[in-house]
Amino acid sequence: MAEAKNLGVVGSGQMGSGIAQLGAMHGLHVWLLDTDPTALYRAKKSISSSLQRFVSKGQISQFSLVHYFTWQAACTEALGRLEYTSNIDELRSADFIVEAIVESEDVKKKLFIELDKITKSSAILASNTSSISITRLASATSRPCQVIGMHFMNPPPIMKLVEIVRGADTSDETFHATKALAERFHKTIICSQDHPGFIVNRILMPMINEAFFTLYTGVATKEDIDTGMKLGTNHPIGPLELADFIGLDVCLSIMKVLHAGLGDSKYAPCPLLVQYVDAGRVGRKCGVGVYDYRKGSEPIKASPRL
Ligand SMILES: NC(=O)c1ccc[n+]([C@@H]2O[C@H](COP(=O)([O-])OP(=O)(O)OC[C@H]3O[C@@H](n4cnc5c(N)ncnc54)[C@H](O)[C@@H]3O)[C@@H](O)[C@H]2O)c1
């Protein structure tokens, strides 16, 4: 496959907006699609301020945007390569699409069926899913050999890793095109078999879930759990703070996939995690999760997002 020129990103939440930003920084024309106009508005603001921070820290040059331009001009160029839309038909000419919508197999499958219908036959359909079977998403389309998992870490412009997941029918050509795109974004690649949670979340989410059980059963306060893991195991961020950053709804969805897919009770979501999500306390994105960010009790002084 020729190098991708046009990128479609579906879902403009924390992951989709970051992936769209990466694409624009690296010279791709990007359509960012969301069904929710408010989410698109938020994405536009957050991409613009994130790019400005890259400029003010002098880091935009590392992305090999045309070097004779000033950093500010490079930022303006990148912003000019981004289009925001709620109309899926605008993705028709995309060479490569990354889906980053809600972590639900049913909702993702419906989207893949639609994308399969409207995109050009050569387009690759990648999912940023944290845990869901790529093989099953691929089987909803007429092009399973062009469906792949491309799992960015949060926040995508900063985190160095992309986990690539091949479904049962993913072709070598699709794999190499996906790897080339991740490398164009200066990411390090790891490859996982198509098993629930892949590599990173298979290990990370049970730890976060266990941190919730530790809180739920009264072993310690949230602050001591996070401090224990930061200073005792050299993690840069505590597991409960990290859960708030990822989104408790996303963590719960991943635990459900691990529990159902691996069939072991050790993956059962902690009732406290379930209760927080039921109460709408889904983390930093809504202002309250394990911690309350609305009252200035924020444990993370600076946002990890640049
Ligand atoms: N949050 C993380 O740390 C993280 C990390 C890696 C991967 N992921 C994965 O990325 C995906 C997105 O996660 P997020 O944290 O960005 O979620 P989010 O809740 O911040 O954003 C999801 C966006 O998708 C939109 N959406 C939902 N259904 C849609 C549809 N049918 N068509 C178009 N837009 C739709 C929503 O309006 C919302 O703006 C999930 O699959 C998640 O598992 C998340």
From TrEMBL:
Family matches, as InterPro entries: 3-OHacyl-CoA_DH, 3-OHacyl-CoA_DH_CS, 3-OHacyl-CoA_DH_NAD-bd, 3HC_DH_C, 6-PGluconate_DH-like_C_sf, 6PGD_dom2, NAD(P)-bd_dom_sf
Protein name (Swiss-Prot/TrEMBL): 3-hydroxybutyryl-CoA dehydrogenase
Pathway: Lipid metabolism; fatty acid beta-oxidation
GO BP annotations listed: fatty acid metabolic process
Catalytic activity: a (3S)-3-hydroxyacyl-CoA = a (2E)-enoyl-CoA + H2O; a 4-saturated-(3S)-3-hydroxyacyl-CoA = a (3E)-enoyl-CoA + H2O
Residues reported to bind NAD(+): 11-16, 34, 103, 108, 130, 154, 285
Domain 3-hydroxyacyl-CoA dehydrogenase NAD binding: 7-194
Gene3D superfamilies reported for this sequence: N-(1-d-carboxylethyl)-l-norvaline Dehydrogenase, domain 2, NAD(P)-binding Rossmann-like Domain
All copies of domain 3-hydroxyacyl-CoA dehydrogenase C-terminal, residue ranges: 197-293
MF terms in GO: enoyl-CoA hydratase activity; NAD+ binding; oxidoreductase activity, acting on the CH-OH group of donors, NAD or NADP as acceptor
TM stretches of this protein: none
Protein family (similarity comment): In the central section; belongs to the 3-hydroxyacyl-CoA dehydrogenase family.
Keywords assigned: NAD, Oxidoreductase
Domain of life of the native organism: Eukaryota
